[in-house]
Amino acid sequence: MLKEGTVMKMPDIRDKMPGRSFLPRTISSKLPFSTKELAEVKSIFHAQENSTMEHVIGNTLAECERAPSPGESKRCVASIEDMIDFAVSVLNHNVVVRTTDNIAGSTGEVMIGKVKGINGGRVTKSVSCHQSLYPYLLYYCHSVPKVRVYQADILNVDTKAKINHGVAICHVDTSSWSPGHGAFMALGSGPGLIEVCHWIFENDMTWAMAD
């Protein structure tokens, strides 16, 4: 579908998370960040017993501590320095971060303009970073082996004017994904049977080798 001239429906790519900021690493590195220290974390952020905030903190800490799936490296990062360090540890120093420019076209029909495959469209490795819900800005970053990454101009269907510049990622190997993954539910398939491609949503990002 990601070919020049294709008309497609754009999903809702808007960032639904509350606005927050990264902490400087000098501060974030000193804050407790584990399920073992949950009582201390709750105290710092004034999270009451059985409150929504308590559940948010507990769920995010558990997800950050979950063992990586086969072939995955993962890290929750609370500063831009930590994010860069993780991306470089997986991909080495010659890296570029990419994301979709804006939310124009979200939920509507759009036309695909010029498409460019990163690293010539070859199968590569990337680090994807997705926001996690937490009192301060936190990203769940993980290495994603066997992907293709694309950039595409997104055009207004009627005027053909460029309204956005999108980044899309295709997961070539889905064999280790859970059968209950939302992508399989939506597409009526299962692990290893299909590739799964999606846009990079607002404020999420993918790191890959520089061209």
Secondary-structure blueprint of this entry?
Elements: E1 7-9, H1 25-28, H2 38-44, H3 52-65, E2 74-77, H4 80-91, E3 95-98, E4 109-117, E5 124-132, E6 138-155, E7 162-171, H5 182-187, E8 196-199, E9 205-209
Antiparallel strand pairs: 1-4, 2-6, 3-9, 4-6, 5-6, 5-9, 6-7, 7-8
Keywords:
211 residues; alpha+beta; nine-stranded antiparallel sheet; 5 helices; secreted; glycoprotein; apoplast
**What is the mean predicted local confidence, pLDDT?**
95
Helical element count?
5
Structural class: alpha+beta
Radius of gyration computed on alpha carbons? 19 Å
Determine the fraction of residues in helical runs and give it as a percent range: 10-25%
Describe the structure.
- The structure is a single chain.
- With 211 residues, this protein is α+β, with helices and mostly antiparallel strands.
- Helices cover 20% and strands 31% of the residues.
- It has helices at 25-28, 38-44, 52-65, 80-91, 182-187, and strands at 7-9, 74-77, 95-98, 109-117, 124-132, 138-155, 162-171, 196-199, 205-209.
- Strands 1, 2, 3, 4, 5, 6, 7, 8 and 9 form a 9-stranded antiparallel beta sheet that branches.
- Residues 1-210 form the BURP domain.
- This is BURP domain-containing protein.
- Pfam families: BURP (PF03181).
- Keywords: Apoplast, Cell wall, Glycoprotein, Secreted, Signal.
